[in-house]
Amino acid sequence: MALSVCRRSKPSYVGCRASFSNARRSSGPIVQSRTNKTNNKTEKEGERFHLSPLLLLLCIEVGSIYILRRQRRGMDAHPNPRPKYPALFVEESTTVISPRLNGMRSPKGVFKGTREEWLEAAGLIMGTWINDSLNQTSRTTYNRKKDATKHVPTTTNLKTYLAKSYGGKPKDYTFQSKTIRYATSLMGSSGHFGGSNHLAHCHFMHATGNGYHEIRMGVHVGGRKTKDESSRVADILLHEILHTCNPRAGHKGSFAVMARTMGLEGALTATVASDELRTKIWNEVVTFLGKYPHNAVTLVPRGKRGKGSRSIKVQCPRCKFIMRTTRVWIAKAEGVLICPIGCTSTITNTHITEPVNMIIFGDEFN
Prior knowledge:
It is built from ten helices and 14 strands. It is of the alpha+beta class. It folds into three domains: about 70 residues, no CATH class; about 200 residues, no CATH class; about 55 residues, no CATH class. The strands form six sheets. The protein has a three-stranded mixed beta sheet with strand order 5-7-6. The chain has a three-stranded antiparallel beta sheet with strand order 11-10-14. The radius of gyration is 43 Å and the shape is elongated.
């Protein structure tokens, strides 16, 4: 079959029609069956094409209902709903801890370093959250005023807002890892039972005199058994780190703003982590480093520690000499001990002297 081409180089299909008609006559029913198959396919495709507008209308209606519900709930302010505490909006921590601390990580077990090294590594990770929340300009901050909403937007970054509202320089509110030292110890002047129920304590730079903020974690706070306990330790540590960023605020003012922005709930003197903050600590601190390598120390108060010395008190009735010995030696002496000073007594109506027997304290020896 050849195509006739005109002068304008456009194909002419006149000759093709004749050739196609001849082919149909010669092929007979075979060509007819092929055409029937093609017609059936086009009919099926047509049926599918007629169904698609119905699906399209259904999708449009479902989408409109979803949009209306979002508008009623007020969720259209941001395409992805932000968390309750804006400081935790950062998706993942990008902290790079030192190779020394990185080599001690044990995500499936207990941290391989000391308690102080775990606190240092956790502080480095959570310190990036603090600085991130201070440097962001599109965040909202917690407002303490009673006549305002809980979280209000700021036109500047948070550290500039704090400096203008509470004084100082913006950099004074940032986390500075080189100015913090970590330790674990007993709380109070005479231990945990000396009238102090603090979980941790922060000694400020201007009080220590060594140029460092000293954070002490109580030994009665443990985290070696479960990740939940280790998360609580990190939550307490975050509270103390925020004190180093606000050394003269106490539990008010700028400290309150930063604590609420970071996701600490409850009384400002005894905060606890919110659900979002606890999840973030669990994933990026405890799971990353391993569990806090310390079991809680429970001290028994004096007077409730049971018996003291097991030695038996022995005293001379004449010179008042006191000594202590064990039951074994008293049993070998058959309960008769002589004063080692050499005290003697004279037998009545005679001039005979004999050594003085010492008094053994205890009901079983009297």
